[in-house]
Write a structure and sequence with these properties.
Elements (H helix, E strand, L loop, with lengths): L2 H32 L1 E5 L13 E6 L31 E5 L7 E8 L4 E5 L2 E4 L2 E2 L2 E7 L2 H4 L5 E7 L5 E6 L12 E2 L4 E5 L16 E2 L3 E11 L12 H4 L7 E2 L2
Antiparallel strand pairs: 1-2, 2-14, 3-4, 3-14, 4-12, 5-6, 5-11, 6-7, 8-9, 9-10, 12-13, 14-15
Length: 249
């Protein structure tokens, strides 16, 4: 083989490698933008449904696409393409309205046109109290973040969606609120950890439809809060095996 042939073969091999890498990156970008996006839980506001250390996939096509479906949220268009309305009870990742560079995850409790209020810890939608039943207590700091038993209440929304909420304090600042009128094209979000959640009752406010990123779908990995998922040798003791491949509801 001549020197020219060797050079051509070497150059071709490098070119193929670069091409494969570029194609893989483009495929990953398309999948992340249009189909699924991995997301890690940054806070305890959705306990006991979601815990810090949970890693989940967010379904991007669930509500159509907005500028925030794309990396870095370029201002290429406004509104949503192929938009679909979230259902009351969906767990949703969205961009924090005051600062869209920050991702939040909460549960949709109010749709456009709804009136939302908290009275003595009970959720009211359009003047009707949402059924709230005490189902027991949790005495596990990995779930509650406190070293004492915490009351757990099961809420059942008008469409039948049920989920558990934590009641860390019987008289917290969020247990009694004014009535919020959800404007058109916006949603009211709340965390399941009702006494430790920055949500639409406070700094989040009403969330525009454009800010929705996607619906939380499935937990694909979970590790104890503070542990590193990169330390594979610690997985036997730190991984929450019972939460793997757990659908979010």
């Amino acid at each position: 083989m001549s020197a020219a042939d060797k050079s051509e073969k070497k150059s071709g091999g490098l070119g193929e490698t670069v091409s494969v890498i570029v194609q893989a990156l483009l495929l990953a970008l398309v999948i992340r933008s249009l189909f699924f996006q991995p997301f890690s839980i940054p806070s305890g506001s959705m306990r006991p449904t979601l815990l810090e250390g949970d890693y989940l996939f967010v379904t991007k096509w669930a509500y159509g696409y907005s500028r925030y479906s794309l990396p870095f949220g370029p201002n290429l268009f406004s509104g949503r393409i192929w938009g679909a309305e979230p259902k009351r009870g969906d767990v949703v990742v969205f961009k924090f309205p005051p600062n869209p560079s920050i991702d939040y995850i909460k549960r949709v409790v109010g749709l456009p046109g709804d009136r939302i209020q908290m009275k003595d810890g009970q959720l009211f939608i359009n003047g009707v109290g949402v059924p709230r039943e005490k189902v027991g207590q949790i005495d596990n700091p990995d779930i509650t973040e406190v070293n004492r038993p915490v009351d757990v209440y099961r809420e059942t929304l008008p469409d039948g969606v049920s989920y558990d909420t934590l009641d860390l304090s019987p008289n917290s600042i969020g247990d009694n609120t004014r009535e919020f009128d959800v404007p058109p094209g916006h949603y009211f979000m709340m965390g399941d950890n009702r006494d430790n959640s920055s949500d639409s009752r406070f700094t989040v406010g009403f969330v525009p439809a454009e800010n929705l990123v996607g619906r939380a779908n499935i937990i694909f990995f979970s590790i104890a809060d503070g542990a590193s998922p990169l330390e594979i040798w610690k997985w036997p003791s730190d991984m929450r095996a019972s939460r793997l491949f757990h659908f979010v509801r």
